[in-house]
Design a protein that fits this description.
The chain is of the alpha/beta class. The chain is 34% helix and 15% strand. It comes from Streptomyces andamanensis.
Amino acid sequence: MTVRHSRDDQGDSRDLAINPVFSREPLQVPRYALPRAEMDPDTAYQIVHDELMLDGNARQNLATFVSTWAEPQARRLMDQCAAKNMIDKDEYPQTAEVETRCVHMLARLWHAEDPRQAVGCSTTGSSEAAMLGGLALKRRWQHRRRAEGKPADRPNLVMGINVQICWEKFADYFEVEPRYVPMEGDRYHLTPEQAVELCDENTIGVVAVLGSTFDGSYEPVAAIAAALDDLQERTGLDIPVHVDGASGGMIAPFLDPDLEWDFRLPRVASINTSGHKYGLVMPGVGWALWRDKKALPDDLVFHVNYLGGDMPTFALNFSRPGAQVVAQYYNFLRLGFEGYRRVQQTCRDVATRLAAEIARLGPFELITDGSEIPVFAFRMSEGTDHFSVFDVSAALRESGWLVPAYTFPKNRTDLAVLRIVVRNGFSHDLADLLLADLRRVLPRLDKQNEPHRTADDAGGFAHGAETKNPRSPGRD
């Protein structure tokens, strides 16, 4: 992200004017340069604290998928482990053991055939985990092509245009052609037919999203896998599936146990999820798992000496705190399967009730209802053209609510929606307060003759629903 500094009329940054704190002398503190000397720690704290008061209230942020609440015990553990470096396996062997336990727990949760043989690791978040999954797909494809004496320089990856922006970054950073399936009509994500249509001998894999950031819907992973099975029977092309379960990977196992999307499907080679979304950990931690060692080429794995033994490691980063991994293990112990089920069911109950109440208000039409991941999107109903979703978003922000408004991508850029993410901590009571504020602003908006705000006013306030830059899926 590019940081732009605000400047005064002279084009130079103004110093921060600091009032006396407990009779201390007033200070002038440079905004964009190091101060010349040290200051009292309480003064430094107060300066930073006061500036951060201008941030939004995280609990009212209905745009982000990231957890904004944690139990005091989890926070204490995170504070105790903040100085532990995850990469130092020898110095912090029990933290490394905790990471291994979490991987095995997830492997069982996602029905790995032999959880002891599943391979996985923690990451800084689901974006890094997704890139690791993509790298493994690319390297497996390259090995196979070279073994067959065929060129391995033009890999492509098939996915819906609704994928999170990290997949566009992966394709750009690691030189893979992204083949996006555009939205059409009421189809807002990838379907089996469209996925197979874009596959060829250079396809390293298909990404199926379990919980689209645009509308909260599940993509039909089992049907996509079945279509690829049929493709292999007809053409010999053996194309694996990576499941981006950033959100749904920690929802479906508890609320939709009969839904087949994970390692029960032989074609699913790898899965990523976000521990700091519906894994219920404060940011940032993610997880990447492969069904077995064959799915993760060994030449991508670095082997380090760990207590006289071998500790394989596979990550894009190096040093990072162990705090979030420990907090993930705490949550797994604290909640167990039934606890996670209750938390996620409450989130879904809040989402579906809130969606139904919003639909009853009149000016809105639901795109989804929160019955898959607890996320739903809604648009202006037909005939409501004197105010926009962007007007609604701005009006709710006056009361502290951050509800993003954005347009859908290519072929459905005409569709502008609002999206609400229900997370742990967003209760029925808070949902009622949001509804009350929404009801309060609607009469004022209804008096407008035309919309006052457009997509240009929304800036980058989309949280995962950014527009991609689709490239032609040509074979040349």
